[in-house]
Amino acid sequence: MGRRHLEYSKRKRLSLTLILFVLVSLLGSMHVIWSADGTFEELLEQGQAQIKSNQFTEAVDSFLRANRMKNDGSVDCWIGISQGYRGLNMYDEAIQAADRALKCAPDDTWRARAHLEKGLAIIPKVDLILEYPEVAETEFLAAINLNPNPPLPAAHYYLGQMLLKDSKAGAAVEHMKLYVQAEPQGGLAAKARQVIDRNQFTNRTPANTRSFVPSRRDDAPAFLIPDFSFRTMQGQTFNKQALQGKMVLFDFWASWCGPCRASLPQLQQLHDHYARDDRFVLISISADRSERTWRDFVERAGMDWPQFFDRDLRLNRAFNITSYPTYLLVAQDGSVLLRFSGWSGRRDEFLHDEIDRRLKTGPNTP
Fold first, then answer.
1. What average pLDDT does this structure show over 314-320?
2. What are phi and psi of 142, to 5 degrees?
3. Which of 49, 273, 274, 295 would you label with 148, given CA atoms 20 to 30 Å apart?
4. pLDDT in tens, 73-90
């Protein structure tokens, strides 16, 4: 009995030892898994390093994982996510992330950083359509006026960039000077000095950012469509008064224009998308030399939205059209929101987004 009891005790101790070994192994594995995931601070630092090394996909993943640890409420993570999306050319997502950063920003300094990031995400859209810089101006101006500590000199530089696009070179020079004054050896200083040198004799606009309010142009009438009246191929009569309250996309084109023909599938999709919404209308105005050629082409191409043959180019001259295709998006009050030439998939996407946004929020949307 004694020998059996001794063997039993040995087996029991061996079993306990094996169980303990397995538990220790499992705990070790769990520790390895936890360490690979990292703490919030580790993931945040990892994401910031990945941004610097242009690993944007990995950076977005790191920031998203870190943000989950803060119940998606980390302003630092949302700004990092926006930076990552910008690096991936996903500008809509970048803007949305910057908006999330604004919502959870704990103070004016963080709000300023979020406004700066949102402005940077908007710039590629401005460059894409070559119009509408005041949207980005508003974000950079907000970043400056919040008076963050530490300050954000880059906001002056990028505001200056947008002011140049908005034909306000004098104000642009003043903001470039403010950037150079704050960061004389900064990474953007050489470009800022070039802007200053090229535009230093332009009439100056005071750079008091708290009193400066971005606008489309100083002369508002330049953004209003002229008076007009015409009858379309389909028998509809349009004039400036009749279109009040509607958003209008004017398409100035010609059948001999290759880019105009290439844009037709997207225009057809745009027309079909809003066909049942009487708040929007697409109107094509042809600069063709022959009315018969124009009519034949419109019928063959199935262009079933309002079409007008500008026989003597009266409308083309009134709208100052010098190249084809040219598009004007006009707001419900008759002011020109966008004006651009040429077409691309990205411009098509931006135009859809812009029309949807303004139809949802009303005619006075900034």
1. 87
2. -60, -40
3. 49
4. 999 999 999 999 999 988
Class of the CATH-defined domain 221-361:
alpha beta
**Paired tokens of 327:** 């598009």
CATH architecture assignment, domain 41-199: Alpha Horseshoe (1.25)
As a whole number of angstroms, the distance between CA 203 and CA 163 comes to 13
| Between residues 40 and 130, the one the model is more confident about | 40
Tell me the HSE value of 1 on the side-chain side, using a 13 A CA sphere: 0
End-to-end CA distance of the chain: 94
SS3 154: helix
Query: In whole angstroms, what is the distance from residue 225 CA to residue 239 CA?
Result: 11
Instruction: Name the residue type at position 42.
Output: E
Length, in residues, of the chain: 366
CB 275 within 8 A of CB 312: no
pLDDT greater than 90 at residue 64: yes
Q: Are 124 and 89 in contact (CB under 8 A)?
A: yes
CB 37 within 8 A of CB 68: no
- How far is Cα of residue 315 from the mean position of the Cα atoms in its chain? 32
Reduce the DSSP state of residue 237 to 3 states and report it. strand
pLDDT at residue 281 is higher than 90: yes
Give the relative orientation of helices 169-182 and 189-199 as an angle to the nearest 10 degrees.
140
DSSP state of 223: G
Domains 41-199 and 221-361 share a fold: no
Which one is predicted more confidently, 337 or 6?
A: 337
The pLDDT of residue 24 is above 50? no
Q: Which residues contact 48 (CB under 8 A, 6 or more apart)?
A: 59, 80
The full set of domain ranges for the chain reads 41-199, 221-361
CB within 8 Å of 51: residues ≥ 6 apart: 59, 80, 83, 84, 87
The pTM of this model reads: 0.50
Q: What distance lies between CA 60 and its chain's CA centroid?
A: 18
